[in-house]
Amino acid sequence: MEIKKQTNLRGTLTVPGDKSISHRAVMFGSLAKGTTCISHFLEGADCLSTIYCFRKMGISIERRKSEILVHGKGLHGLSAPEALLDVGNSGTTTRLISGILAGQKFISELDGDDSIRTRPMKRIMTPLASMGADITSKRGNGCVPLLIHGKELHAVHYDSPVASAQVKSCVLLAGMYADGVTSVTEPFLSRNHTEIMLNYFGANVTSEGTTASILPEPVLEGRAVKVPGDISSAAYFIAAGLLTPGSEILLKNVGINPTRAGMLKVCMDMGADITLLNQSTEGEPIADLLIRTSNLKGTTVEVVRTVTDERYGFFGQRSHDHFADFAFGNGLERVGIDDLDIEKVRPIMDAFPDLAVQARSGAVHLGHARDVVTGLKAEFFGETLAHFEAVRLGTENDLLKCDLVAQIVALHFLGKEEGH
Q: Would you say residue 274 has pLDDT above 70?
C-alpha cells in the first residue's frame, strides 16, 4: 500500500451502520407484534449471528438489498429451536439473547466459535440466577456453551459491580418476563441503546441516575428503524478532515448518543470545527457532521469513558493492562512520540482498560483507515506508516479505535510541548 500526502479532502460520506443498534433492532423486532423494517443495517458476521438465532426460533427475517424485514411474533412468540443456537463470535448476541431465553418456556443451548468459548459469561449468569433463571455453563468454566432452561422469572433490583451495557441489557430483557419491576444500578452509566430502543418499540423503561428499570410484559410494536452510522467508523474521517489542510467533509446520519460520542467533545474541546446538522432525537440521537480543517490545541480529556465502546470496569481484568500499554504506547510511537515515559501513558490507560480486556496473544497487521489518516499527516507526525504491528485486543475495530485515541493524545502532547 502506498499512501501519499493529500490536501483538500472534500465530499459527503455515509459510514457503516452501528453494530450495537443493528443487533438490538433485530432482537426487539422479533419480540414485537408486526413487521420491523431496518435500514442501514450492519451486515457484519456478529449481527448476522443474531439474525440466524432468531430465525432458528421461528422468526421470519428477510434480507433485502437496502433493508431487513423482521416479522415479529410478540413477546411470547418464539419457538423452541430444533438445534443449538450458534452465536458465532458475537458476545452481544450471547449476552443479550440469554436474558430473553431465560424467560421462555423451552430449553435452549448457546454455543459459538473457539474465541467466544473463552469469553466470560458469569457476569450475566449471576444476575439471571438471582431472578430464578436456570442457566449453566456446560463446561463449568463460566463460558459457552450455555444451557438455558426457560423458567418463570422474579423481579430483582440488581446492583451491578461493573458498568456494562451488555449486562444491563441482559437483565432488562429478562425483566420483560419477570413478575414485577426489574432494575439495574451501575457504578456509572453505560451505553443506553437498549433503554432508548425498548421505549421506541413501546416498552416502559425509566432511568434515574445510573439505575434503569423496566415494567414486565410490555407490548412491543413493529417499527421502522434507521440504524445510525457508527461513530467509531466516522472517527477516522473526522480525524482526516480536521487534520488535512483545506478539507470539508460531511458525514451523514451519524449516531451522537452522549454515552458513545465522547470523542466529539474531546475534539471540540481541542478547537475542532465540527457542526452538527439535521439533528434528530426520535429514537437514537443522530446528526450529520460537517467537519472542517482546524488548528487543534491541547486539552484535558475528561470524558474518556464515552470515547470507547465499553465503559471502565466492564471487564476489570487488570492483569491484561500490559497489552493495552503496549498497543497504546506503540500507537504513540508511530505518530512521533517515541520517548513518552510509560508513567505518562499509565494514567491515560487507567482510563481505557477496556482496550485490553479482550487481549489475544500474537500480533496482526493493520491497515485501512488508520493508515490513511497517518499518511495524510505524515509530514506532521514525522513518518508514513503503511502497516504496523499491534497486540490484538479482540476486534479490528477496537484496534483502530485504540489508534485514534493515540492520535488524539499525541496531538494533546504535541500541542503542549511543541506549540502546534
A: yes
